[in-house]
Design brief:
By secondary structure, this protein is of the alpha+beta class. The protein has helices at residues 8-14, 16-81, 86-89, 94-107, 142-145, 150-162, 208-225, 282-285, 300-369, 376-408, 420-430, 432-438, 457-473, 532-542, 571-579; strands at residues 111-118, 128-131, 147-148, 170-177, 180-190, 198-207, 237-241, 247-250, 260-267, 279-280, 288-294, 416-418, 441-446, 453-455, 480-488, 491-498, 546-551, 557-564. The strands form 4 sheets. A 7-stranded mixed beta sheet has the order 3-2-1-6-5-4-10, sandwiched between helices. A 5-stranded mixed beta sheet has the order 13-15-16-18-17, with helices on one face.
């Protein structure tokens, strides 16, 4: 278990499994890269086309809605004010004017009332009102349908007469009457082309609050229902804002962070924009409202990017799945290659590990048999060597047999209450000769009164002995070994620490694999079958515990076995079962 090799990169490329994986990756990656390249180009083109469509839809909708509002507001000017000629108002021809005003209110319900005034005729100098209430009266009651409105007349007529000096045919202003704001527009009729003397007025008033809260929102909702919303994208949203920025209409719950795509403005006037130069005093009185369209809080590039994101994500997932498949196939092939190599090395290691102790046993047995030992002390030493090598051989064979049973799933564990302190003491007693022969300095620390755990005593001792053997094998020149047992966080922990060659961090996750042996520099160091730690890891999993390693190259290793401490009643079923 020595440190890193002399050239990790060279070792990597020398690995036949790695070369196989690289070859498969190249074979698959080139055509897939070409396919994904053209697919991504197609998605980018789709994003550009979608962006154009969304911008065009927003622009066309903003333009159409603005034009709709302007047409809606100027309708009474065309259908009523301009339709009533001066000859019908001087004197008043109420029978002719009645259907004109009636149709005007039906076509333009946002108009609160029409007014007419003239200085000539039977009802001359009276400010007559025609509103939605007038439509409820019978047509025969013509005089009642045109009723005098002194309140509005007292406010509006003087205001209009004061504007005569401007000599404009159209006047537009706002007036507050009874606490409500009204938009007022009047068509002025003069005695002559000099426009010095006012003779009649045809006017309309619009309740500003009703226009803001009822009529404009109703009109826009009807129009928005006819807008074909984009498929697969956020809906187009519309908001109308007053001059102060407050919203009087929104097609959805727009938030303050919504991003406008198009903005238009329109004046609250009730005649054609081309007539602005003939109207007064529009510059001071008119309001400018804004119409804004957008697709929510995201910009169009963000929206179209989000629409193609699932396809791109799918392509990434597909690429990942293909890469993972190649990786798994290459990994499986590489593992088969490595397993074949490991098995070959395993056979060589088994032959070596069997031959060495057998040769020693045979050598010292023949020496004793031929009577070449001159002193009893020397003979006892030979006996200890023979006994130690026999035990080593026995442990080696038991490891192979246990591993075979584990591979076949036939390795049972007979669980019974066990004192791990005693088990550790037994193991140390069995390997004491090996400590002496290797001149190891052993330090033990077994905490008194360790809790009993459920364990298979034989398997546990074998796991501990395997770790102790590893510590001796890889101690290097520093012969210190520290072994301890303690209770820690619900576990009994047995730790074996050496100060030898250590294990690199990148290999610590692999040392518990079967046949695996840490790469040693220049191929030197102790040999082995690579089964000892695999058996330890299997044993600890069978006991519901774990084996952990902490190591640094050239600073030694610490292996620890963590056995869970059972609850108070955990021993009872086991004892009954064993007794049965």
């Amino acid at each position: 278990m020595s440190g890193t090799g002399s050239n990790p990169l060279r070792q990597l490329f020398a690995d036949r499994g790695f070369r196989l994986g690289v070859g498969l990756a190249i074979v698959v990656a080139i055509p897939m890269a070409v396919l994904f390249y053209f697919q991504f180009r197609s998605l980018n083109d789709l994003e550009k086309t979608s962006a154009v469509v969304l911008r065009q839809l927003s622009s066309d909708t903003a333009e159409s809605l603005t034009q709709t509002i302007e047409d809606y507001l100027r309708r009474p000017q065309i259908s009523v004010l301009l339709k009533v000629p001066q000859a019908r108002s001087e004197p008043l021809d109420l029978a002719w004017i009645d259907p004109v005003f009636g149709d005007g209110l039906k076509e333009s319900p946002f108009v609160d009332a029409f007014f007419i005034w003239t200085e000539r005729g039977p009802r001359g100098d009276a400010w007559l009102r025609y509103d939605h209430e007038s439509l409820t009266l019978p047509e025969s009651a013509l005089q009642s349908r045109f009723r005098e409105d002194q309140l509005f007349g007292a406010r509006l007529l003087p205001r209009i007469q004061s504007l005569v000096k401007l000599r404009m045919a159209i006047v537009a202003f706002t007036e507050v009457i009874d606490g409500r704001k009204y938009y007022v527009q009047a068509q002025l009729r003069f005695e002559s082309f000099a426009r010095q003397r006012l003779t009649s007025v045809v006017a309309l008033v619009v309740d500003a609050e009703k226009l803001r809260q009822e009529f404009i929102p109703t009109l826009l909702r009807e129009r928005m229902n006819n807008v074909q919303q984009p498929v697969g994208f956020p809906p187009l949203e519309v908001a109308v804002l007053q001059e102060d920025g407050s919203r009087i209409f929104e097609s959805d719950e727009l938030r303050s962070d919504d991003v406008p795509v198009d903005e238009r403005s329109f004046a609250i006037i009730f005649f054609d924009k081309e007539l602005l130069e003939f109207a007064a005093p529009y510059e001071e009185q008119r309001e400018i409202w804004g119409l804004r369209t957008g697709y929510g809080p995201n910009t169009i590039p963000e929206i179209v990017s989000a629409s193609t994101r699932p396809q791109k994500a799918l392509m990434v997932v597909l690429a990942g799945a293909i890469g993972l498949g190649v990786f798994l196939v290459a990994g499986a092939a590489a593992r088969e290659v490595r397993v074949a190599e490991l098995k070959s090395n395993f056979v060589a290691s088994v032959s070596h590990d069997l031959k060495t102790p057998l040769a020693l046993i045979q050598l010292f047995a023949e020496t004793l048999e031929l009577g070449r030992v001159r002193t009893p002390d020397r003979a006892m030493e030979y006996y200890r060597i023979i006994n130690g090598e026999a035990k080593k051989l026995t442990r080696f064979i038991e490891n192979i047999l246990d591993f075979s049973r584990m591979e076949a799933g036939l390795r049972p564990y007979r669980m019974e209450p066990a004192d791990l302190g005693e088990a550790l003491t037994k193991v140390l007693a069995r390997v004491s000769n090996q400590f002496e022969q290797g001149r190891f300095v052993l330090t033990t620390s077994i905490a008194p009164g360790l809790p009993r755990v459920m364990a298979d005593e034989g398997a546990t001792e074998q796991a501990i002995e395997n770790l102790v053997a590893n510590a001796m094998k890889y101690s290097g020149d520093d012969r210190r070994i520290e072994i301890g047992a303690r209770s820690d966080l619900g576990h009994v922990v047995i730790s074996i620490r050496d100060h030898g060659v250590g294990i690199h961090r990148r290999e610590q996750g692999r040392i518990f694999r079967k046949f695996y042996r840490v790469q040693r520099e220049l191929g030197g160091g102790p040999q082995g079958t690579g089964l000892g730690l695999a058996i330890v890891e299997h044993t600890m999993r069978g006991h519901g515990g774990s084996v952990r390693v902490e190591s640094e190259p050239d600073h030694g290793s610490t292996f620890s076995l963590h056995f869970p401490i059972p609850g108070e009643n955990a021993f009872e079923p086991t004892l009954v079962e064993l007794a049965r």
